[in-house]
Amino acid sequence: MSLPVEAQDELEQIITSIVDRYKAKPTALIMALQDIQKYYHYLPIEALKLIAKKMNLPVAQLFGVATFFKAFSLTPKGKHHMCVCTGTACHVRQAGVIVDNLSRSLGINPGETTPDGEISFETVNCIGACALGPVITVDDEYHGHMTVAKLNKVLDDLRGKKTAEEMVEEVQ
Per the confidence metrics, is the pTM higher than 0.70? Predict the structure, then answer.
């Protein structure tokens, strides 16, 4: 699959900017990949090939890094990314209920993205905030002691919807 010419030009500019920022140092590969993913919400294959060329690295090395770290994705993610911790501390505090509710509310399973491209969610083995369990992250922001009611509020906020309580507060 090849990008249209306009997208290729944009990609070239973005990659050049990122590579220049890190002076094409191979030790900056992970940071460069993070920047690309932040911009595109995933690592496009064309971007990996281009950055490999500009940093004078084998494409296989970039694929190795991109597939080794769970933080990277080779498939498009949503504009907003949610992670639900299912580690032991969160599991015993009903993280499964949060996962089930999120799946139902979004109409997708963990590891998928909503059809409108707005929200992706996944489960992770541990977020490292066990005292806050069950915990989720939304665009790298932590939300602890998660309940179904709190989750529904988070989803409403992401979707730009106001809760009934917020509408009442605005009127007063």
Answer: no
